[in-house]
Amino acid sequence: MEKTLSIIKPDAVAKNVIGKIIDRFESNGLRICAMKKIQLTQENAENFYDIHRERPFFGELVSFMTSGPVVVMAIEGENAVLKNRDLMGATNPKEAEAGTIRADFADSIDANAVHGSDSLENAKTEIGIFFTDSELL
Ligand code: CMP
C-alpha cells in the first residue's frame, strides 16, 4: 500500500470537474484518505514547487497555481504513486494517452488539470506539506 499526493489544479476546479476526476481515482482502486479545497498563497506554491525554482516556467507555474482554488488530496492504494501517474497521463496534455485525466480535462502544459507526486519519497514530503498524520484516515 502506498499513499501519494494529488492536486486538482485551478483549471479543473474552474471547469467544475472535481467529482469526475475523483471518480477516476475511486474507480481504479485508489481511496481518498484526506482532502481539502484551498487557495494557495504565492509562498505556498513557491515552496511546494521548490525543485522547479530554477526552471524557466517557474514564475508562470506559481502564478497559475495561485490563480484560483485547488483541491489537495492524499490518496492510497496498491502502487498508488505509479497508478496515479498512469491515470493522469503525460504532463503535456497533447502527449497524454486517450482516456487519461489530462487528455480528457487539460488544456495546456500549464493548465494541466492535476499534479501527482513523482516518487514515493516525494509523495511523503508533499503529503506532509498539506496534512498532518492524524488527518490521514
Ligand atoms: P506538475 O506535475 O504539477 O509539475 C510541475 C508543473 O510545471 C507541471 O505539472 C506543468 O504544469 C508545469 N510545466 C510548465 N512547463 C513545463 C515544462 N516544460 N516541463 C515540465 N513541467 C512544466
Could you give a quick summary of the protein structure above?
The protein is of the alpha+beta class. It contains seven helices and four strands; from the N terminus they run E-H-H-E-H-H-E-H-H-E-H. A four-stranded antiparallel β-sheet has the order 2-3-1-4.
Explained architecture:
- Helices cover 39% and strands 19% of the residues.
- The protein is α+β, with helices and mostly antiparallel strands.
- It has a four-stranded antiparallel β-sheet with strand order 2-3-1-4.
- Bound molecules: adenosine-3',5'-cyclic-monophosphate (CMP).
- Adenosine-3',5'-cyclic-monophosphate binds next to loops.
The low-confidence runs, each spanning 5 or more residues with pLDDT under 50, are none
| Helix vs. strand class | alpha+beta
Q: Which ligands, by name, code or SMILES, are bound?
A: adenosine-3',5'-cyclic-monophosphate
Total number of helices = 7
Taking the alpha carbons of the first and last residues, their distance comes to 14 Å
Helix proportion range: 25-40%
Number of strands: 4
Keywords:
137 residues, alpha+beta, binds adenosine-3',5'-cyclic-monophosphate, globular, 4 strands
Topology:
Layout: E1 2-8, H1 10-14, H2 18-26, E2 31-38, H3 42-48, H4 58-65, E3 70-77, H5 80-88, H6 101-105, E4 114-116, H7 120-130
Antiparallel strand pairs: 1-3, 1-4, 2-3
Adenosine-3',5'-cyclic-monophosphate binds at residues 52, 57, 61, 91, 109-110, 112, 115.
